[in-house]
Write a structure and sequence with these properties.
Blueprint: H1 7-29, E1 35-39, E2 43-50, H2 62-82, H3 87-110, E3 113-119
Antiparallel strand pairs: 1-2, 2-3
Helix pairs in contact: 1-3, 2-3
Length: 129
Amino acid sequence: MKLKKISLPLIIILGILFDQWVKSAISQQFKLGEQKVLIKGLLSLTFLKNNGAAWSILEGQQWFFVVTTLIVLVIAIWFLIKSLSKNWHAFGLTLIISGALGNFIDRVRQGYVVDMFQLGFRAPLITTN
């Protein structure tokens, strides 16, 4: 089945709406820092406010993330236009675009991004005898 050009903007809009809905639900139903295990040792929901990038890198540099997001969006949209004939590639790019726009909305509206997915697996400790 071929993705139609008209369905890509719809996927992006639905992705943004889903992103904002999940973040709103987490913000309303969890206390800041509260964690609920979904899969023990692997996946938890944790309500965090992140005003940086992954793992709070460059914390508080909102102007940098706004500019970076705009640049990433332009590049992602360019790649999307170039890959319209490649369904999975185009679909993946729509998810990247909707996620970037969802985080952009958070940063502009709240000054931080709501993070909620936490991976819990750890590499085994290596001990020497």
